[in-house]
Write a structure and sequence with these properties.
This protein is of the alpha+beta class and 246 residues long. The strands form two sheets. A four-stranded antiparallel beta sheet has the order 4-3-2-6, with no helix packed on it. Helix 2 packs across helix 4. The protein is elongated, with a radius of gyration of 28 Å. The N and C termini lie far apart (61 Å). One of its GO terms (molecular function) is transmembrane transporter activity.
């Protein structure tokens, strides 16, 4: 199953490249690359959430005034006649593994930490908050998002090669070879980096954190380069824009 899903990730990436070339010819490689890198940011962000079953502290209940505890139950705490309602545990995540959840789900409740007869000062904690967060990380949703990401990268491959004759018309062969070599190095180095990230962090989704960071860097870098090229080609444009804005 793992091998099948891996092939489902890489196969569309190669097949859809022709469609990416058509899109690049029609809308321009620069526009397509903006869409590809933006889509990579969104999908990597969705994929980096690991499967989790976390218990943590939540919002507690402090005393509004000093006094003596007169009643304690799972639903409320009373201090000299003043009642503090508590959020009760519902056990709605008891069968969470058997149910389908697309997004992380959580349950919050409060548990008393005082007893009847205790002397309480103002702002002293009466009940401790509890939070339970569960994320199923459904394998089919994960696989679908990963396959979609692979398809987007296939479109991006075509957009990258579309840039070559536009920006390097006299060195298409050399630049194309360099792009191919860098792409091969990426395919060789990234799995090794993924392994080290998994070892260092203990998170299987750490590879998507790397993809998110790389995509953000590439998007910002590309935008800055395009801005510099635009300013160099039409230096008066930015000046006129500033004057119009003022």
């Amino acid at each position: 199953m793992a091998g099948f899903l891996a092939s489902c990730f890489s196969l569309p990436s190669g097949i859809i490249r022709a469609f990416g070339g058509w899109l690049s010819d029609k809308f321009g490689a620069r526009t397509i690359m903006y869409r590809v890198l933006g889509g990579t940011l969104i999908l990597s962000l969705a994929l980096l959430l690991p499967k989790m079953d976390i218990y943590s502290t939540g919002k507690g209940v402090p005393a509004k005034k000093s006094g003596t505890i007169t009643a304690v139950s799972s639903q409320s705490i009373a201090i000299d006649g003043q009642t503090y309602d508590l959020e009760k545990k519902t056990n709605k995540l008891k069968d969470a593994e058997k149910e389908f959840h697309f997004w992380p789900v959580k349950e919050t409740w409060q548990e008393p930490i005082v007893q009847v007869g205790d002397k309480i000062a103002k702002k002293e904690l009466l009940a401790e908050g509890k939070t339970h967060i569960y994320f199923q990380a459904n394998v089919w949703i994960f696989a679908s998002l990963a396959i979609l990401l692979g398809s987007i990268w296939g479109i991006g491959k075509a957009a990258v090669y579309k840039h070559i004759p536009d920006y390097f018309p006299d060195e298409v062969g050399v630049v194309g070879g360099m792009v191919g070599v860098l792409g091969g190095l990426g395919g060789f180095c990234c799995p090794i980096i993924f392994g080290y990230l998994l070892e260092w962090t203990g998170l299987w989704s750490s590879c998507w954190i790397l993809m998110l960071a790389l995509s953000a860097i590439c998007l910002i870098w590309m935008h800055r380069v395009i801005q510099k090229m635009t300013d160099k080609a039409v230096p008066q444009l930015s000046t006129d824009f500033d004057r119009t804005k003022n």
